[in-house]
Specification:
Helices cover 31% and strands 22% of the residues. It is an alpha/beta fold and 222 residues long. It has a nine-stranded mixed sheet with strand order 5-2-1-6-7-11-10-12-13, sandwiched between helices. A two-stranded antiparallel sheet has the order 3-4. About 4% of the residues have low confidence.
Length: 222
């Protein structure tokens, strides 16, 4: 399985790096079964994060015809309330950065991914608001940072207050650090518990919170 993590201007670095490292470790534990790459809707380029001068390089173009897993991070910046849109970085609030991604090719590519049988779309934190604001996941169960649950529900998606929400081919994580748990959950779901446990132990990280599936909530004790 090829996992493509889709970078866009203003992305949150931890939303990217946490699942990237988990999935990359999983690929080493299961050679030939998983590969991970950083991409953008525009193709290879340096992509600025919302965290100061930190950038990551997209090595390819998001291609839902090739990817079995497409992962969308959230953004980082002021939340909007009280932000000075006229100051340095004005307008680079989290809502503005997420909304700006809608003017790129990202929503159209996510639509293709969601329509392609067998492809999983995963999101971390505010990343779920990208397909939600594009009208792609109305009626689907999904989560985001607790501060964005109302905004998520306003798009017509079914906002669930859980750390991980599994709605079949749409899997989402809540706050920023949930990217670790999302990656481990995806490893367990797609490659089996042995691989997920090996990576969990390697990272000295114990999963926590609730995993909510479309069939109902599942305790997250493993």
């Amino acid at each position: 399985m090829l996992c493509q993590i889709a970078l866009f201007d203003g992305f949150d670095p931890l939303d990217v790096i946490a699942p990237y490292e988990v999935l990359f470790a999983g690929s080493m534990a299961a050679p030939g079964q998983l590969s991970v790459e950083l991409v953008s809707a525009e193709g290879p380029r340096e992509v600025p994060s919302g965290a100061g001068l930190l950038t990551l390089r997209a090595t390819g173009r998001l291609d839902p015809r090739r990817a079995g897993l497409v992962l969308v991070p959230g953004a980082v910046g002021p939340l909007g309330a009280g932000a000075d849109a006229g100051g340095p970085g004005g307008g680079d609030t989290v809502p503005a950065l997420l909304a700006r991604s809608l003017s790129t090719r990202l929503p159209a590519l996510l639509k293709k991914a969601l329509e392609r049988p067998g492809t999983i779309v995963a999101t971390v934190c505010g990343g779920s608001l990208v397909p939600a604001m594009a009208g792609l996941i109305e009626g689907r169960h999904v989560t985001t940072n607790h501060l964005g649950l109302d905004a998520l529900a306003a798009t017509g998606a079914v906002a669930v207050d859980a750390r991980i929400v599994d709605d079949g081919d749409l899997v989402s994580g809540a706050g920023v650090t949930s990217g670790l748990d999302l990656g481990l959950y995806l490893l367990e779901r797609e490659l089996g518990p042995r691989i997920a446990h090996a990576v969990e132990r390697l990272f000295a990280h114990e999963r926590r919170g609730t995993v909510w599936r479309a069939t109902g909530p599942v305790p997250a004790a493993f």
